[in-house]
Amino acid sequence: MSSTNVVLIPLDGSKNSERAVNSGLVHATHFQTAVLNCWYMEHFHLKGDRVVFIHAFDPVPMQSAKHTGVDFKNSYDEWCILMQKAQDSARCLLKEYDDRFAGLKDKLSYKMIHDTGKPGEVIIDYSKKENATCIVMGSRGLGKIRRTLIGSVSDYVVRHSLIPVVVIPPFSS
Q: Cys staple from 48: which of 3, 40, 101, 150, with CB 3.0 to 4.6 Å?
């Protein structure tokens, strides 16, 4: 890979997403050491690379007022509260990562993005917008039947991406 790679790393706060960044490291005494030993930094990073961390969440569906007994105003207010909580959670997650990587600004060029929508679609869209050269992401390790029934974000991204996707598998039990 050339020294001008743009690597997209999706984050969702799960252990497997964290593993893609931290390679499953348990609480290190100094986070800078943990970051330098993370999967991406250890196996992939080249000087000059730019990393785009992205968090996408599916908006909570708003209940429709099909039935006359539904109080649309209260449903809308509740939906707004749920959406605000989801936005706050996304900002908090990205701030946590921003704080973790702040000490590495001289070694790691990165930016944080959060957006709403189906996570797989958002990841693919931003990989195009950011001219990403690779996506590095974690996998939940769903079985074949569960993955077929409910799908997985990593499966979607692998199937729809026009660039290489590195999927970090979960730890084997």
A: 3
Tokens of 56: 């996408």
* Cα–Cα dist 9/4, whole Å: 16
Q: How many CB atoms lie within 10 A of CB 60?
A: 15
DSSP for 10-51?
E--SSHHHHHHHHTT----SSHHHHHHTSHHHHHT--TT-EE
Contacts (Cβ under 8 Å, ≥6 apart) of 142: 150, 152
Alpha-carbon span 139 to 137, nearest angstrom: 7
Which tens digit of pLDDT belongs to each residue from 64-86? 555 555 555 667 788 888 889 98
Q: Kindly report the pTM of this predicted structure.
A: 0.76
CB crowding 139-165: b at 16 or more within 10 Å, else e: bbebeeeeeeeeebbbbbbbeebebeb
35: CB partners within 8 A, 6+ apart: 22, 41, 100, 101, 104, 108
Residue that the structure tokens 């074949």 belong to: 144
| Residue 126: CB atoms within 10 Å | 18
Q: Is the pLDDT of residue 46 over 80?
A: no
Number of alpha carbons in the 13 Å side-chain half-sphere of residue 161: 25
Distance separating alpha carbons of residues 106 and 48, to the nearest angstrom:
10
